[in-house]
Amino acid sequence: LDAVGVETERNGSIIVDDHMRTSAANIYAVGDCPTLPQFVYVAAASGTRAARNMTGGDAALDLSAMPAVIFTDPQVATVGLSEAQAQAQNIETDSRVLDLEHVPRALANFDTGGFIKLVIDAQSHRILGAQLIAHEGGEVIQNAALAIRNRMTVEDLADQLFPYLTMAEGLKLCAQTFGKDVTQLSCCAG
Length: 190
Fold this sequence. Notes:
Elements: H1 40-54, E1 68-70, E2 75-80, H2 83-88, E3 93-99, H3 104-108, E4 115-121, E5 127-134, H4 137-149, H5 154-158, H6 169-176
């Protein structure tokens, strides 16, 4: 790699830009060798972007709403910024944590150990991040990723229609906690 001018990190990971280009002209790096998060879906997406770019395209890999899941039971999932990460970028945040004992699906499953947390920009109310611990949390975090990608506010998310008795409904309920006490709502109050 040194001989052709490809820069690497100390650990050997190849440094790439968001188009998967290395520091050497016409050399791209994808998969697990570049300095990208080590997830199979990131590796696949990097390959797709590089292929487009090598054939004259202009495809960037945006990881700002990349979900990550640890497949334990319950699952640990995150997307976007944590409060600490946002504050490090001088973004004033607000956040709420909803214990799963307030999510009807978790109650029906007799599996209320866990929580859903939303982090928002305190000024614009735009959703910046979500973290959760829940059975099948990986299924829930993708909805939060879409909310972040689409620059939704917490009010937008709270106003969405979510099917009753799903874990994904927990995101709506957590969003609603910014404006009301969800423990006082009926089972499927919108």
